[in-house]
Each structure stands twice: as structure tokens, then as C-alpha cells.
Amino acid sequence: MKAIQFSEVGGPEVLRTVDVEQPTPGAGEVRVRVAASAFNAADNGMRAGFLPIPVVLPHVPGYDVSGTVDALGSGVDGLAVGDAVIGFLPMERDGGAAEYVIAPAEALVHAPTSIPLEDAAALPSVALTAWQALVDDGGLEAGQRLLVVGAGGVVGKYAVQLAKQWGVHVIATASPRSADAVRAAGADEVVDHTTTDLADAVTGPVDVLLNLAPIEPEEFTRLVTLVRDGGVVVSTTAWMAAPDDATRGVRSAVVFVLPNRDRLARLAAMVDDGSLHVEVTRRIPLDALPALHAEASTGRIAGKVVVLP
Fold it and tell me: Under a CB-based contact definition with an 8 Å cutoff, are residues 28 and 73 in contact?
């Protein structure tokens, strides 16, 4: 089968298209014929060697995947050959940038049926990140106020959609390019961070501040003043600590997304009932993945890109 691998860490040039043996599922595992994988910034970090996830080389990237169950290992229940599935695969194992991938059965759920199976690969880890940031780390509750910094990105738009589903007042920062999309996601207030100082725009304290943007540490610390006493600061910027304010009881957390099968199934159901929108901005063939990594190395990728085998 065809796959994209890297056998050493380094620049995008270490990615190679290779022919490898089709894998066989072991006990508790499923072989998935890949419909698509999704590109994530962490794939870039693992390839470059600056994200400390212990992958075994050679490694196939692409830990978000959608596809069709092709074979079952022993002891697998709840899935059958031919089922359309999505999954957030263990990041240290080979991913979905290939024609087939082996996945633990517990990493897979039935795919939403209301969108193309290829596009469903864009859902798992980013939507789980948003949910985990808001609920597990932020303790967000109905009736509270949420400030999302960097809401124009993929995780940000999921965070806005989920928060609105839960009855939260959402204030979001976005550039003019993404402001309309953030409003469409449900934000109650959208602040243009390119022209407006947040300290002036946010009237009244927020219960949770979710930062998704690469802002300067001094600016991040200044934003903590917008959080109420006893509130929470949550960030996905793993390279930078999230500031807190112990004198006011404001705690902080940095998100490291974890798999959650039940939650992923609920997210898929939300897609099918129309309460959650999956955004895909580009679809590229497998052979174009090295070029996408090169693009990501020079700046942030706008939107979500899925990779077709």
C-alpha cells in the first residue's frame, strides 16, 4: 500500500512516499481503509522533532482519520466490516496518511452520515480539544461568559459553536478575514484584534478565557485581568505557560488533548443533528502532503485540510 513516512526528524523534505506492506489488525484492533486523514499542527511538530511525542521511526503522520472498516482483529465488538468510522488515533502510532491504517477499536466511532466521509476526518482531535478546553479544563457552565482569543482558527470555531450550544455568552477575537465565520459560529460579540484593544472592548469580567493564539507572554498576562475572581484561564499554546492570578483565585491550564470515544460519538451526533458544523477548506492528494508541511513551516495553515489517499 502507499503511505507517507519520515524515517528521521527534520524539514518537510524528510517526508517520503513509500510502498509498505498492508498491515494486519491484532487483538482489539481494526484495519481501516482510509477515506482521508487531516493535517494538524502537531504533525508538523512531530516531523520536525520539537514536539516531544515518542514516535517510532519510520512514522506515518495523520492521527485524525476517516474511512471504512476493512478487517477486524479478535475481540472487537460494536464495529463491523463496511462501517464508516472516524477516529483520533494514538499519536505515537502510525497515522492515516496512507491507504490503510491500524486503529485500536476504542479509538473509533461511527462517522456522521450528513457530510462526506472524507470531510469527517476534520472533526476528531480539534473538536475534542475545544470540548476538553471548555469543560474539563475550563469548567464552563451555562449562563457564564467566555472570551475566546483567536476564535478564527479551527479549534476556535468549534469552541464558539459548543459554548453557544451550552447557553454561554461568547466574546471572540477575530481578524476581518474570519470575523463573519466566527459570527456564523454563534459568537455574541466579535472583536477585531487588529484594531481594538481587548481591555477596552470587553465590558465586564469573563468566567473563562480561552487563548488559541500565539500572543506575547506580556499580553497574555494582561488579559488575565479580564477574568473574574475565581475564574479560569485555558490555553492550547503548549510552548508557553498559561498565566494565572493566585491572589484572585484565577487558575490556569494548558490543554493536551486526550482521546474520548463517548465524547467523539456525541460530537458526530451533533454534526448529524445540525448543531455542529465541520469546516474543510482544502482537500489534497496524499502526494501533496510534503508540500503542505512546507507551507505550514512558514506560517499557520488557514482552515482545515484533509488528505485523500
Answer: yes
* pLDDT (tens digit per residue) in 50-79: 888 889 999 999 999 999 999 999 999 999
Q: Rounded distance, CA 154 to CA 39, Å?
A: 12
Q: What is d(CA 273, CA 47) in angstroms, rounded to the nearest whole number?
A: 37
Q: Cβ contacts of residue 296 below 8 Å, gap of 6+? A: 39, 41, 44
Instruction: Write out the DSSP string of 194-218.
Output: TT--HHHH--S-EEEEEE-S---HH
Q: What is the pLDDT of residues 176-192, one digit of tens each?
A: 999 999 999 999 999 99
For 147, the 3-state DSSP assignment is strand
DSSP string, 241-298: PPP-BGGGTBEEEE------HHHHHHHHHHHHTTSS-----EEEEGGGHHHHHHHHHT
- Global confidence as pTM: 0.96
SS3 157: helix
Please choose, from the candidates 107, 84, 86, 103, the residue with its C-alpha nearest in 3D space to the C-alpha of residue 95: 103
Cis previous bond, 12, omega within 30: no
Q: Which of 204, 214, 195 is nearest to 149 (CA)?
A: 214
- How far apart (Å, rounded) are the C-alpha atoms in residues 178 and 153? 8
Backbone angles phi, psi at 42, to 5 degrees: -65, -30
Spatial distance between the Cα atoms of 75 and 28, rounded to a whole number of angstroms: 5
* d(C-alpha 176, C-alpha 192), whole Å: 7
One-letter amino acid of 188: D
Distance CA 45, CA 49 (A): 6
Distance CA 257, CA 241 (A): 16
Nearest-angstrom CA–CA distance, 141 and 160: 14
CA–CA dist 306, 135 (Å, integer): 27
